[in-house]
Fold this sequence. Notes:
This protein is mainly alpha-helical and 116 residues long. It has four helices and two strands, in the order ββαααα. The protein has helices at 17-20, 46-49, 61-68, 82-110, and strands spanning 2-5, 12-15. The chain has a two-stranded antiparallel ribbon. The chain is extended and about 70 Å long. One of its GO terms (cellular component) is mitochondrial inner membrane.
Amino acid sequence: MYYKVSGVTGKLTGASAASAYSPQGLKPAVPSQSPPMIFALPTKVVSEAGPAVHYMGINKVPDLQKIFQKADGAPVHLKRGVMDKMLYRTTMGLTIGGTLYCLMALYIAAQPRKPQ
Length: 116
């Protein structure tokens, strides 16, 4: 069953499927003409481009699947080598440093002020 808000009472009332999909005040509109092109050059549809398109690049998914599905015991975020390890260690270092800085700032803020 479909529901809609009654314009009179402001409560939910039962509605047919046709009225539930066209809210009050909004009407489905189909443009009579297509909008103008945004870009000056016409675009190529993939079906018109032929079997291989040079600008789509090489499909790297099978290679990446082999790397990430290898059972070597390493976590997924470290499987791609040295760069992943550097990023991980940098992130952990910044996280630990930020935590220590916050704790130090809280400790300093908790100390009473010395009378002047």
